[in-house]
Amino acid sequence: MTSTTADLLVHPQDAPDGPWWRSAVIYQVYPRSFADGDGDGIGDLPGITSRLEHLVELGVDAVWLSPFYLSPQADAGYDVADYRTVDPVFGTLDDADALLHRANDLGLRVIVDLVPNHTSDEHAWFTAALAAGPGSPQRELYMFRDGLGEHGELPPNDWKSVFGGGAWQRVTEPDGTPGQWYLHLFDVKQPDLNWHHPRVRAEFESILRFWLDRGVAGFRIDVAHGLVKADGLPPYGHEHEMLQGTDEQRPQAPYWDQDDVHEIYRSWNRVVSAYDGDRVLVAEAWVEPAERLARYVREDELHQSFNFPYLVTPWSAGELREVVTASLQATDAVGAPTTWVLSNHDLVRHASRFGYPAGTRLGNGIGADDPQPDAALGLQRARAASLLMLALPGSAYLYQGEELGLPEHTTLPDDVRQDPTWLRSGHVHRGRDGCRVPLPWQADAPSYGFGPGPLSWLPQPAVWRELALDVQREVPGSTYETYRAALRLRRSLELGTGSLTWLTGWGKDVVALANRNVTVLANVGTTDLELPADTVVLVSSGEPREVDGVVIVPADTTVWARLVRA
Ligand code: NOJ
Ligand code: MG
Q: Is the bond leading into 371 cis (omega within 30 degrees of zero)?
């Protein structure tokens, strides 16, 4: 059935002795929802520390922590009031140090989140800027402008907030009169910094060093494509639903992916390069096409960028092949590793996304009155998609709970929603709460073991009970044990530094590839796939059936196998 004649090598093996992050599996912890140590219903650093062994058992290399810094929590911590202080809701700086020590003892690296595009409006710089008034050096650190119109009553331009509504807020000056406007590409409580200012640059280099000195393995850079705005702040004429790339209808925005942003990353590269241990800088950049995104990971800039084009690819064999090829080619051209990701704290979890017909356009959240996903289909495809992802060379990012096959909470009551998107869009876009629900560790404990008591900052759906970790542990074929098996094999077979060859002869609906000597087959079609005799299945996302000695891979299933070739 297989034919090697037209097989196509797309990506060669990596050097065996490269930095760890080129092939790492990195697990995203969303601190408020991972584990609650003190029972207030909000996850915290001691909670995370107490559960780090789970990540060792799962078999990941590193953890990325979303922000835990001092913050009024207007955007769940992505509104930072002090970058060197831990928010009391999450613990103390000592708790952060204890977490780093424990992780180090367990052989887990820790990446933290850096939020450089904006601060909180409660950051000392911003309150000083408000108090100091127009024309002051303090205002220069942010994007203050006079308004248009006779009395400055109109915003300086037409830019829209990613969370809905306008991107400018008018302030009341210290003398009580209506005054200047400041830019906030996100919430009104997230004023954008002025990255042309040397003090802003110096401050962030100092923040990098503060955390590097404490032993972090690197940083995930929030909105890495947004720091520099086009000179003169020209009008744009379009809106963004959320962070999105460009297309014909939506040309390049004057606040995303500006060329001057790269100079910042060259200077950060110099900062981290002075430290030992191959520290890593990861870009959250919604930039297309792949060649443009690859500029962020040139040799003297950042090291990785999240592969969002891969994340948004529907369950379609052709589209999957295309995006994998394009991703590998673009990063190979600049010598960087490709990354892979299927879920994070901003998007509908993939176990629910794949429960909709391919190509369905979903917002960032689903409400009880929206069409609901097919949960069983979603989970089956999610497992198949994850197993395909974990076979790819490069680095993979997992989002907490996907190892349990957690779906989105698609019926959260609207009155518990906290994402500013819901409010700012005038109750049009549900926002991201549904992927941020606290994790289920134990089926029979209050809050499913998230904390010591019953509290959970968002209500957990009833299905958490059957998906809890203790229900799946040591159960062969559970989602959790499938992830574990895949991660173990990925490590021992060195797939992360492996190669990628597309295999022909498996039909158009099968994503068929070889990485080193493993054959990976994702059956994206609707009919059974028969494996040649003597095939050894190493791991499977579902139950392969055997009929008359022939192994059958059903639809929506991925296997890693060893083929005995004629
Ligand atoms: C991207 C983060 O992932 C998201 O959660 C946040 O709201 C925005 N950046 C603004 O910081
Ligand atoms: Mg707590």
A: no
